[in-house]
User: Which sequence fits this backbone?
């Protein structure tokens, strides 16, 4: 074998090999090309909203699927990202001219209703767009880091971690609703109209935001693939499957977990920020336990061992939710429930598992048609740095067990 | 549909003496009265591309059919459908039968926003009847303003809002509160007040207004003000505080499931409403059904409508409602407000001679209706309704005796001196 293909392969291997890159390319073509061509702006805006959940689902694949850390509180980070963006937009919408009718012009309307007379200190940084962009990432990252340090350094894991994250999500909701003078309460932060003077409600703006959201999603998927295929990714899988062995090998398991949890939360927060931009408001209903569990469902339906599958899962579940509720306004909840049960019972590895079971033979057939692919499909030993394809069945069965054992 | 409600409603329709937009109205009513099938051409009545054909017009209903709010919003859906059915039986609006597209807001504010996008941008509905909580209204408001849609919102709410695209058929805060407090001050001699509410924008704003009114106008004293999270069921410490302070009146705005626990615990603590008068702005027939009449016997509510109102318009409404939804159906204040929506829209459309939102909006102010279920009403320029406030005292059977009613009160969503 000549050295050139090996060099080329190693570049692609950083992202999981040519197959994964092609899958991401397919997603890119679908969301950047096919969807905008075949849907009107109303549907496209909805699709954009669904795709913001794909960020969360991708984050869950990292920390749950590969790290074995089931977080039932991803809504916290989605919400933090969304609220950071909403606070910036709200301040812009609350210029003294727009709010002249209030007792204290220049502060958001809900503060005025709650008898606040000046902007609270933690709202101040959100006057600046740059600061907002930094905070969208920094606030959830810091929060996830704190949770991570508090939990993982004490070796809290598995079911206990899931319960604690759920409790934190619940606390966040109560906090946001209770402190309505500072947060907008149960109404959320509403009536967001422009971003740095640019009207985000026009059709053109919706297109721009949709494409920006798609681009960010693709970048996040690539980043996720990169993480999973780095040396760290292998450690992560090793830790998920045999935590003690990794610890005895001299690695600090807690740090590995903290990193993946922070990474997942940052990805979720970016999704939250795009959600606010596209939907035009943020409310505590995305932070709470129900929303957080729904996000786990997106991931489970898509396949929790596949970043790409999770993105499809988030999209398809939300699509089903919208179309079922439009067609059967009274029965759709039942239909959705049935759908979830069916997926979990019949396809425990989600859509990605389904695809890899049925598509693999087809792909192998195609692969055998080209020389180089035969090497990639059958000869991992020629590329020592490449991990196995992540959808392997055996690993999946272990992961559930390890999620329960690892504490 | 029986001929009685038909004629009854026709009477209601032409009964208003004060149709200010007389010329246009005259044209519309002549057209109706003549019964001729001469519906105006679609191109004339619909210049903005709404879902209007030569014989139908499509409207949207957007309420929660699932989730925690479903129980509250079902009454509104029923009332809106009843009104639309009656209007259709009378020949529809501008000679067009009303078709309904119903969407489920699922007790989830973003879903409300999504569905309102759909109704306005995909379905091009001529108007929407819907929303219940303030949160859902706040979520859809930017959508309606951007798409220049039309929303009839039925719930009594906190005020502080006025939109070109929304008509508020319930009371804004001052209409419910000021009259109620004045009554308590004059008739019960209340000087000290204890304010209790659920913790969200409506009770908070209402209590803010109540406090200003008590302190600045009635020169009374607020001896306590407390808020409990939505869904809270622990009122023990509050009840002890009330026992300690012995206010002349407890003024309450506790909503939803909390109500059941709140009133049962009050009863269990031996605080009957005879001993401890209490006035609420959040309890209607619907809530009493859940709480149980025996638990609220003697409690006062400040509302514009009670099912027991002895008015001709109400008799027809209650009869028609029970005929459609069963003898046991109860009708609360919000249900009645929801019933007003389609009628007000129909009248405005016919006064405008057009379905165009801007024309309907322009034709609405100063419309009057003498025999609405709750009596006389008038649409104000600020898109709220002039209406009476009534004090009802609850009986064990779940109905209220109306013990007092105010004059017709002008809506004032941005009350000076109460902010």
Assistant:
């Amino acid at each position: 074998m000549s050295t050139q293909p090996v060099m080329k392969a190693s570049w692609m291997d950083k992202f999981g090999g040519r197959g994964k890159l092609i899958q991401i390319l397919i997603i890119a073509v679908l969301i950047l090309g096919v969807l905008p061509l075949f849907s009107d702006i109303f549907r496209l805006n909805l699709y954009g909203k669904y795709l913001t959940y794909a960020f969360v689902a991708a984050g869950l694949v990292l920390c749950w699927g590969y790290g074995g850390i089931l977080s039932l509180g991803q809504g916290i980070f989605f919400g933090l990202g969304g609220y950071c963006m909403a606070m910036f937009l709200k301040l812009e919408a609350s210029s003294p001219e727009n709010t002249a009718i209030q007792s204290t012009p220049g502060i958001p309307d809900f503060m005025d209703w709650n008898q606040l007379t000046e902007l609270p200190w933690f709202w101040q940084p959100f006057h600046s767009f740059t600061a907002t962009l930094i905070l969208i990432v920094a606030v959830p990252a810091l929060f996830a880091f704190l949770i991570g340090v508090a939990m993982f350094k004490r070796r809290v894991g598995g079911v206990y971690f899931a319960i604690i994250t759920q409790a934190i999500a619940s606390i966040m909701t109560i906090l946001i609703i209770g402190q309505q003078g500072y947060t907008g309460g149960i109404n959320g932060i509403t009536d967001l109209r422009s971003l740095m003077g640019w009207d985000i409600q026009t059709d053109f703006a919706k297109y721009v935001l949709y494409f920006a959201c798609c681009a960010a999603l693709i970048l996040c998927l690539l980043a996720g693939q990169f993480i999973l295929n780095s040396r760290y990714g292998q450690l992560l899988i090793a830790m998920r499957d045999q935590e003690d062995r990794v610890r005895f090998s001299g690695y600090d398991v807690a740090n590995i977990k903290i990193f993946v949890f922070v990474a997942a939360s940052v990805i979720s927060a970016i999704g939250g920020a795009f959600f606010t931009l596209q939907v035009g408001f943020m409310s505590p209903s995305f932070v709470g336990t129900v929303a957080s569990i729904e996000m786990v469902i997106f991931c489970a339906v898509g396949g929790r061992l596949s970043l790409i599958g999770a993105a499809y899962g988030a999209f398809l579940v939300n699509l089903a939710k919208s179309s079922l509720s439009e067609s059967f306004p009274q029965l759709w909840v039942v239909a959705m429930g049935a759908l979830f049960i069916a997926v979990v019972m019949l396809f425990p590895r989600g859509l990605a598992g389904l695809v890899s079971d049925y598509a693999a033979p087809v792909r192998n057939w195609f692969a055998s048609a080209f020389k180089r692919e035969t090497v990639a499909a059958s000869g991992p030993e020629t590329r020592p740095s490449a991990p196995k394809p992540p959808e392997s069945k055996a690993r999946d069965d272990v992961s559930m067990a390890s999620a329960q054992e690892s504490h | 549909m029986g001929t009685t409600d038909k004629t009854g409603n026709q009477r209601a329709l032409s009964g208003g003496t004060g149709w200010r937009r007389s010329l246009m109205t005259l044209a519309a009513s002549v057209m109706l009265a003549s019964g001729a099938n001469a519906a105006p051409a679609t191109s004339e009545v619909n210049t903005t591309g709404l879902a209007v054909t030569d014989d139908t017009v499509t409207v949207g209903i957007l309420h929660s059919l699932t989730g925690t709010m479903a129980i509250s919003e079902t009454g509104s859906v029923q009332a809106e459908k009843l009104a639309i059915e009656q209007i259709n039986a009378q020949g529809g609006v501008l000679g067009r039968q009303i078709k309904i597209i119903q969407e489920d807001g699922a007790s989830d504010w973003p879903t409300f926003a999504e569905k309102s996008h759909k109704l306005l941008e995909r379905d091009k509905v001529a108007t929407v009847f819907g929303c219940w909580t303030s949160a859902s209204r706040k979520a859809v408001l930017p959508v309606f303003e951007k798409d220049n849609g039309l929303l009839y919102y039925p719930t009594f709410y906190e005020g502080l809002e006025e939109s070109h695209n929304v008509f508020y058929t319930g009371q804004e805060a001052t209409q419910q509160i000021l009259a109620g407090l004045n009554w308590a001050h004059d008739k019960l001699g209340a000087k000290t007040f204890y304010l209790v509410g659920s913790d969200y924008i409506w009770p908070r704003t209402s209590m803010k207004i109540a406090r200003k009114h008590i302190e600045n106008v009635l020169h009374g004293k607020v001896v306590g003000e407390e808020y409990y999270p939505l869904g809270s069921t622990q009122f023990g410490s509050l009840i002890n505080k009330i026992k300690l302070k012995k206010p002349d009146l407890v003024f309450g705005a506790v909503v939803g499931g909390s109500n059941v626990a709140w009133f049962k615990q009050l009863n269990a603590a031996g605080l009957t409403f005879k001993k401890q008068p209490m006035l609420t702005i959040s309890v209607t027939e619907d809530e009493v059904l859940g709480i149980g009449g025996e638990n609220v016997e003697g409690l006062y509510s400040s509302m514009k409508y009670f099912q027991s109102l002895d008015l001709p318009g109400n008799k027809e409404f209650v009869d028609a409602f029970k005929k459609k939804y069963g003898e046991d159906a109860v009708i609360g204040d919000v249900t009645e407000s929801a019933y007003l929506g389609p009628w007000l829209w129909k009248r405005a459309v016919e006064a405008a001679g057009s379905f165009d939102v801007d024309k309907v909006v322009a034709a609405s102010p100063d419309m009057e209706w003498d025999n609405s279920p709750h009596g006389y009403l008038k649409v104000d320029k600020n898109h709220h309704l002039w209406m009476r406030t009534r004090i009802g005292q609850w009986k064990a059977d779940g109905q209220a005796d109306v013990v007092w009613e105010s004059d017709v009160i002008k809506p004032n969503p941005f009350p000076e001196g109460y902010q």
Notes: Residues 173-307+391-409 of chain B form a domain with the Rossmann fold fold (CATH 3.40.50.2300).
